[in-house]
Amino acid sequence: PINAGLGERIGIPVISYAATDPDLSDRHAYPAFYRTVPSDNIASIAIVKLFIRFNWTLCIIIHQNDAYGSGGAKALTEAFINNNLVVADMLVFDVATRRMRDNLKNILTSSSTRLVVLWAESTYTSLILQNALESDVLGPHFTWILSSTISLNSFNETFHQKLIGVLSVEPIIANVVHAPINTTLLNAAYNIWKQYEPETFPDSTKVDYYALFAYDATWLLIQALQRLCSKVTNNSFSCLSFINSSSCFDRYFLNSNSFFDTINHMRFLGVSGPIQFNINTTDRINGSYYFVQNIQSSSNRLNFIPVLKYSEQDNWQEYSEVNKIIWPGNSSILPTGRAKLDGVKLHIGVIESVPFTMISTIRNEFGQNTTKLIGYVPDLIELLQNKMKFIPNIELIPSNQTYASLVQLIEDHVYDIIIGDVTITATRRGKINFSNSIFNNSLHIIMRKTSDINFDLFAFMKPLSFKLWLLILGVIIFASILFCLFERENIDPYKEKSIIYLCAMSIWYVFGNLVGYGVDSFHAETPGGRLLTAGLYILCLVLVASYTANLASELTISKSKNVISGINDIKNGKILFNRIGILVGTASEDYYLREISGGNRNYYPLKSRQEMYNSLLNNIIDVSFHDAGVAEYITNNIYCDLTLIGEGFDQGAFGILIPKQWLYDQDLDVNILSLKELGNLDTLRRKWFQVKKCSDSSETPR
Predict the structure, then answer these.
(1) Distances from the Cα of 131 to the Cαs of 155, 169, 695, in angstroms?
(2) Where in the chain is the domain with CATH 1.10.287?
(3) Under CATH, what is the fold of the domain 567-689?
(4) Where does the chain hold its CATH 3.40.190.10 domain(s)?
(5) Stretch 93-110: mean pLDDT, rounded?
(6) Mean pLDDT for the stretch of residues 190-211
(7) Residue-wise pLDDT tens digits, 288-299
(8) Range(s) for CATH 3.40.50.2300 in the chain?
């Protein structure tokens, strides 16, 4: 900025080959400034496009605290925001103390991103990388992108593996991306160099690109002056004349306006690519190119190998088919840029719940009994461990913990994660986070099995009690005796018959009238007989009506296999609310309060699943709500006298409980989705849930 201001004051252009500060692009602030090197604004756009190419969205920026570092960090931040990318944190390297202002290790390891963009000059870059190596925040877990290359010889060989995978983004000349350059001019310059200073001339492939930017800056001045002088026709003054020349700082170039106008309209092919400017910006037009170099190991040495090239027209492309990117950890797999669980120790809490997590006792080689966790969850942890390479410390959560209290355990950092049959709900997600679904779930109604219908030859007698049948028999006998006494002398055909015969006919008469059939062979003639007959008719009406009603009820109940057919019957009140068992602190309780009782806790509270099973079998409750997977396993393998009724309801999913803003949430979700796509979760479900030990003929004990 100082030189640019001086050039404006005396009316001559200042052309830079190395100043990349984005503020210098403002033509109104710096009317005398030009540059042949691309500005940091263009470099920032190139880095943003690199992130887009690799699907990265988040990074940490480290910059030195001077104009170069602050300007680059500002340009990069603005480019990220404009492209919906996120800068997670900004760290500063103090050039005065040559130290980081912040604790590099603490900030990087606690961040959710593993991408670091370092914007610093080569000298400071080496110091920052040495700090990063000592803090163990380079490879294989972190990917660093540098704004300048450095010498790799200063690093101890023990750190070489951690440096592999580092990237650098730097400006280059046009021919690297197969764009045209002025090879004639370049070869002529090389020949002059070799002629006059052969001892300093390197191989042409090792000439620094900034030297070529400097050459084009010089050639631009030469070409502009040549054109200017060819246009000046006033012989009284030289084309290079200054006015007020008595003092250096009071001088002013006489043909300043013409000189600037000449530069703004010049267009030629330089040794770094096409050179062109206009009056709106200090940056060259359509002449910015970059490449990405990758630190790789070859012949036991570290080298920067070009792997990608960039132009404003073609975006990022492979540098060559041979040079492939080697990522941190000597990996060929593109890093996600997010924190990964590789090598991380995880304190995992699991819930004892058949068949998700069960305790199995096995005998070891020394004859001692040891316990081992088996089930869906231990198998899932093993699959995730094989893919993600974390170090698990699995602990069984005490059985007195409710499902609702598990959320607090995560909030209090008692466990890193908790895995079990825990339903994802809005209330729980408001306090903690969940992973992607590990098990699709719904609620089912569970109740006792009803007995199979048995054929009973005396079932017709069940509508009336045994005492009532005895009473009816007594009535028939007593009424028969009375009828015989009343009508014996009045039945002409049977007067001469024996007393036994007369008693039998009396019983027949009473029975016929009692069942409503009547007797045609004789009738009551005496007042007593007729009164007795009337009483039998009345008793007949009462008995037949009562018998018919009770028989219909018995038949209906015997043919009804279950009292209810689904959740709608419970909503309609077919089961008394205090006969519905609900496990306290679960998603089942939330559903009951929300959908059935309107917040009224009028159910029978259950503290554990074992209490649920016992209460159903002991007829303390009639029904309860149970998670589908566990309920299916329980009714098919353990409690054969329990059954599931109707279709599932309140569809949901089980997820892994994780803290809010957990560093490894994306890594966990990606690997769970991978297990789903590979069919591993379906295999686990078949292994642990689609088994059946109960026979179809199991009956409820009486």
Answers:
(1) 11, 21, 68
(2) 459-552
(3) D-Maltodextrin-Binding Protein; domain 2 (3.40.190)
(4) 345-438, 567-689
(5) 93
(6) 89
(7) 999 999 999 988
(8) 38-174+290-318
Question: Do residues 169 and 46 make contact, with C-beta atoms less than 8 angstroms apart?
Answer: yes
Q: Which of 367-376, 483-492, 550-559 is most confident?
A: 367-376
Question: pLDDT for 319-376, tens place per residue?
Answer: 988 889 999 999 999 998 998 898 899 999 999 998 999 998 887 777 777 889 999 9
Q: What is the end-to-end Cα distance of the chain in Å, rounded? A: 98
Contact 505, 494 (CB under 8 A): yes
pLDDT of residue 522: 65
Please tell me the total number of residues recorded for the chain in this structure: 702
**Contact status, residue 138 vs residue 254, Cβ threshold 8 Å:** no
Q: Which residues contact 327 (CB under 8 A, 6 or more apart)?
A: 143, 165, 333, 334, 335
CB 381 within 8 A of CB 372: no
Judged against a pLDDT cut of 60, whether residue 653 lies above it is answered with yes
Round the average pLDDT of the chain to a whole number and report it: 87
CA 425, CA 650: separation in Å to the nearest integer?
A: 11
Q: State yes or no: pLDDT of 562 exceeds 80.
A: no
Give the separation between CA 519 and CA 577, rounded to whole angstroms.
55
Alpha-carbon gap, residue 191 to 171, rounded angstroms: 25
Per-residue confidence band for 236, with pLDDT thresholds at 50, 70 and 90: low
Contact (Cβ atoms closer than 8 angstroms) between residue 670 and residue 464: no
C-alpha to C-alpha distance for 10 and 254, rounded to whole angstroms: 9
Question: Confidence band (pLDDT; 50, 70, 90) for 540?
Answer: confident
The whole-number average pLDDT for the span 109-113 is 90
> For residue 265, what are its two tokens?
């309209």
Report which secondary-structure segment, H or E, holds 360.
strand 358-363
Confidence label for 700 from pLDDT (cuts 50, 70 and 90): very low
Rounded Cα gap, residues 449 and 444, in angstroms: 15
Cα separation, 469 vs 330, in Å, equals 94
Return the CATH architecture of domain 38-174+290-318: 3-Layer(aba) Sandwich (3.40)
Task: Report d(CA 269, CA 75) in Å as an integer.
Answer: 29
Given the candidates 3.40.630, 3.30.160, 3.40.50, 1.10.287, the CATH classification of the domain at 459-552 is: 1.10.287
Burial of 277 (0-12, 13-18, 19+ CB in 10 A): buried
Least Cα distance to 98 among 67, 120, 70 occurs for: 120
Task: Identify the burial level of 550 via C-beta atoms within 10 angstroms of its C-beta, where 0-12 means exposed, 13-18 middle and 19 or more buried.
Answer: middle
Secondary structure E strands in 9-106: 14-16, 33-35, 58-64, 86-94, 99-100
pLDDT at 163: 95
The token duo for 386 is 């094989």
CB atoms within 10 A of CB 371: 10
Q: How far apart are CA 443 and CA 632, in angstroms?
A: 11
**Predicted structure pTM score:** 0.70
Paired tokens of 75: 């340009």
Confidence of residue 475 (pLDDT cuts 50, 70, 90): confident
b/e for 216-239, b at 16 or more Cβ within 10 A? Answer: bbebbbebbbeebeeeeeeeeeeb
What fold does the segment set 345-438 form as a domain?
D-Maltodextrin-Binding Protein; domain 2 (3.40.190)
Residue 692 one-letter amino acid: K
Task: Output the DSSP codes for 524-568.
Answer: --SHHHHHHHHHHHHHHHHHHHHHHHHHHHHHHHHH-S-S--SHH
